[in-house]
Write a structure and sequence with these properties.
Length: 456
């Protein structure tokens, strides 16, 4: 921990990292476990998609509600609830006897995870200000985003040497550590006076997204003409439209649409939509293809992403600090373009598979681009709003990231033509690169650096 942090600030960063770590970890370790889950519980590609998207539906929708709840009832209380709920749901996933039980347990796990990220990051933004905040966010970003990338490795080790079930218990240790550290934090649990929570808005968002995702996953098998597809799609769009309408009229909306009138906030979230959609799609298809197409074990498929993790750990805090001094626009523009270049290097993958020449270069370049992007992106979005609204701002940004991944994975069967072979992988790679380029363009056009001397 850097010397510039006081002991309590070090503790804040440690709690924020550990509290968020489990949510990011479980969001990605599932990818390498998918073939094993399919072999054990059955269901094919649809079960694999739902094992990921059931988690992302509740996480992406309820993370908005959790942001409001954390502002209304206190970030530390919400963090405790999320940690305990996540631990219980993780045990349920590990014990799942059927695919349906696993999918339901994953949805509960995502709901608990929704309470972790906004309250954790808001804890940093409300207690650490000035240049130290940018460095703290860089550390948080490096370690939590690295959890997203390291998750496949951890999951692969469990899958190959124990069982995919044990992989979902990996978060129990950081959960216990965070619960032990929380009583040592000498900080008041901040609550917004008179704050209320829009429970109806949260329900409309959750069921609207859930029905849309159901339709996208079922469409490749049933077709658009099937009532099993168009009926939930229409209902989901209607519910989500009702959610947006309610946000314009609710006294305490879970998604304050007025935030999007802030140029940097709106552009940063648009960039998030593109970048995290690409990240989720590439992680999903690569983890499955390396096992089912290239014939690697789950551990080796997880090790494929390790170079990206190492680059992230080494560089993210540095780019976070640079962004604090120079402004985020340059980094948010260049970073996604570098990631796009790294992603396109995966087009070199052939039937005669060679990790060192076909995958490793892309992992290294993508890791560099990710390091350049994520800390400045987070800092820009949270720095564009006042600290009193940091909880909901963090929730909105994280919800956008999760919804991006949710929709990308739900639509993967349409992108790959229903089969994740080499052709399907290449189609996915091209789509990911296009999304990353759009993320860089959105940042170039929309992001504005804060005026010199602005502490945010």
């Amino acid at each position: 921990m850097p010397d510039r942090f006081a002991p309590q600030q070090q503790l804040v960063v440690a709690i924020a990292v550990l509290g968020s770590f489990v949510s990011f970890l479980d969001g990605t370790l599932v990818n390498v476990a998918l073939p094993a889950i399919d072999r054990d519980l059955g269901g094919g590609l649809a079960t694999q998609q739902w094992a990921v998207d059931a988690y992302l539906v509740t996480l992406g929708a309820l993370i908005l509600l959790a942001g409001s709840v954390s502002d209304a009832f206190g970030r530390l209380l919400v963090l405790r609830i999320g940690l305990i709920g996540f631990g219980v749901a993780s045990i349920a996933v590990a014990l799942a006897p059927t695919a349906v039980f696993l999918i339901v347990a994953r949805a509960v796990q995502g709901a608990a995870g929704a309470f972790l990220v906004p309250s954790s990051l808001a804890l940093i933004t409300s207690t650490i200000r000035g240049p130290s905040q940018a460095r703290a966010i860089g550390i948080w970003t490096a370690l939590t985003t690295s959890a997203m990338v390291a998750g496949p490795l951890i999951g692969g080790l469990f899958v190959d040497h124990l069982s995919w079930r044990f992989a979902f218990l990996a978060g129990i240790v950081p959960i216990a550590a965070t619960l032990l550290l929380l009583p040592r934090l000498d900080a008041p649990d901040h609550r917004e006076p008179g704050a209320t929570v829009d429970w109806w808005g949260g329900a409309l968002c959750t069921f609207g997204l859930g029905l849309i995702v159901f339709a996208l996953i079922e469409e490749p098998d049933a077709g658009w003409s099937s009532a099993l597809v168009w009926a939930p799609l229409v209902a989901g769009c209607a519910l989500f439209t009702g959610f947006l309408w309610r946000q314009r009229h609710a006294a305490s909306p879970v998604l304050p649409l007025g935030l999007f009138r802030i140029r940097t906030f709106a552009a940063g979230n648009l960039a998030t939509l593109f970048v995290y959609g690409a990240l989720s799609l590439s992680g999903f298809v690569l983890a499955i293809y390396l096992q089912q197409g290239a014939g690697l074990s789950a551990t080796l498929a997880g090790l494929a992403s390790l170079p990206t993790t190492i680059v992230m750990i080494a560089l993210s805090s540095r780019f976070g600090a640079l962004s604090g001094r120079l402004g985020p626009r340059l980094f948010m523009t260049v970073g996604p373009l570098v990631m796009a270049g790294g992603t396109l290097l995966l087009l070199t993958i052939e039937t005669a598979f060679d990790y060192w020449w076909q995958v490793l270069p892309g992992m290294l370049v993508s890791g560099l681009g990710l390091s350049i992007t994520v800390a400045p992106l987070t800092s820009a979005i949270l720095g564009s709003v006042d600290s009193a609204r940091s909880g909901i701002a963090s929730a909105v940004n994280n919800a956008v990231a999760r919804v991006a991944g949710l929709l990308a994975i739900a639509a993967v069967a349409a992108v790959i033509g229903g089969t994740l072979d080499l052709g399907g992988l290449r189609s996915s790679v091209l789509l990911c690169a296009a999304l990353l380029v759009l993320g860089g363009i959105a940042s170039l056009v929309g992001i504005r650096n804060p005026p010199p001397g602005d502490p945010s």
